[in-house]
Amino acid sequence: MHAKIENIVIKPIGTVHCLRTEEIDDHWGSVVSKIKLDSDQFDEQALIGLNDFSHCEVVFFMNRVPECKIEKGARHPRNRTDLPKRGIFAQRSKNRPNRIGVSRCRIVKVEDLTVVVQALDAIDGTPVIDIKPYLKEFAPIGEVYQPEWTKDLMSRYYL
Predict the structure, then answer these.
(1) Fold designation for 12-63+99-131
(2) CB distance 36 to 14 below 8 Å
(3) Which of 55, 64, 143, 155 has its CA 20 to 30 A from that of 10?
């Protein structure tokens, strides 16, 4: 039997800087963001080779979601009652138990301690937990399917 882990401490590696300051669900495709690494922890060596990739995955902490808004059960996605009620782990809501976000975005450039990306769905001031290069080999194995309601919901997300 494994011991129960009570707490995990994660120190942000950097911060998102962009013009987007409001938690709006759509139109992320043209958003250009700078991820500035924490110079107390890292130097330019940490980013060597990242510019050899077209895309990266950014893991971030949605720090502006108040604890009282965290969902542990089921809800209507985006609170739209015309959509079926789904468990928090069957949707990508920001109101997740650990407020962790994951986004795949295009790398525009890497310079000094800054990674400039496009289509990162994180607002200005968001703490970044990790950056990983995106590799095709990590794409899902086999056919990808999803419920019909998600297609309408996501149709404007990256416009």
Answers:
(1) Elongation Factor Tu (Ef-tu); domain 3 (2.40.30)
(2) yes
(3) 55
